[in-house]
Design brief:
alpha+beta; Arc Repressor Mutant, subunit A; 3 domains; four-stranded antiparallel beta sheet; 11 strands; 44% helix
Length: 287
């Protein structure tokens, strides 16, 4: 087992990129670069391949090497980046760095750390002491690497039964943990290390619904749970994925990964033969 290196310092920030912006650097000055895509998308050029980085995912680039990536031409892209610096990287640290995939989905734990960094950036007066700030950033950076280290291990775990069960296991894990992100079939397959056609065949061979139907069912399952465990009207459904709040059906649709409330309601009715409003009325809530 490789230990996480203790970094000397880290630098962070948030950026908004114009559609089609391109980043090129002959040699990254840091030891490790992370970019978390808050909105939009990026395209990372890695080993003669272009890897798409969707909203809610991050890409990882080792420092000391040339790097190139661009941003979608369809919209502005907002990202949070963290650069880690290590003055004297040894072989163990370099080997540890190689364990990470180029692109990873981002868990809620990692997102919370990025959100904390954004809060610090937008309220600099909270940490006026530079020495204290550096210590806190180093602590947050190490915590972030700890989270990513665990998730990288989970993604790289092999299965004794071969490639197909491993791809299915990874796809199901991604869907269950990141259903609220805008996942695509191409993106899921890419993170499983197979083509989308291979993934579809694997699901079919295992007598499972297609990956996208599995994703919609997972989203519907969470939507149903939110509707059945609240006692407010449809216009003010109380729900919170992590803490209590008051959300409308539109917000529930958004939190569970649907692009529009109409799409959520349509698929909900197809799957459960009831509308969200009917579920509310059936349990004694207001209509």
């Amino acid at each position: 087992m490789l230990n996480i290196p203790l970094f000397d310092s880290c630098k962070y920030g948030s950026l908004i990129h114009a559609p089609g912006a391109v980043f090129r650097r002959e040699k990254l000055p840091c030891f490790l670069h992370l970019s978390f895509i808050l909105s939009g998308a990026a395209i990372l050029s890695r080993e003669k391949r272009d890897l798409t980085v969707e909203t809610g995912h991050l890409f990882i680039v080792p420092g000391g090497k040339s790097a190139e990536w661009s941003y979608t031409e369809e919209m502005e892209t907002c990202e949070v980046f963290v650069d880690f610096f290590l003055k004297r990287p040894n072989k163990a640290a370099q080997k540890w760095r190689e364990k990470f995939p180029a692109v990873m989905p981002t868990s809620r734990q990692a997102e919370k750390i990025f959100e904390t960094l954004l809060t610090i950036e937008s309220h600099p007066y909270l940490l006026s002491d530079k020495t204290a700030t550096a210590g806190i950033l180093r602590h947050l950076g190490q915590a972030l690497l700890g989270v990513l280290d665990r998730e990288a291990k989970m993604l790289s775990e092999s299965d004794e039964h071969g490639e197909e069960p491993r791809a299915i296991e990874r796809a199901v894990s991604i869907i269950r943990n990141y259903y609220h992100h805008p996942l695509t079939l191409d993106g899921i397959a890419q993170r499983c290390g197979v083509t989308k056609h291979h993934l579809i065949r694997s699901f079919k061979a295992a007598k499972l619904p297609t990956p996208m139907k599995y994703l919609w069912r997972e989203r519907l399952r969470h939507g149903l749970h939110l509707l059945q465990t609240t006692r407010l009207s449809v216009k003010e459904i109380a729900c919170r994925l992590l803490q209590t709040t008051r959300l409308s059906v539109k917000e529930i649709a958004c939190r569970t990964g649907f692009k529009t409330p109409w799409h959520f309601c349509k698929l909900f009715k197809q799957e459960h033969d009831k509308t969200p409003q009917a579920v509310r009325r059936a349990r004694g809530g207001e209509g």
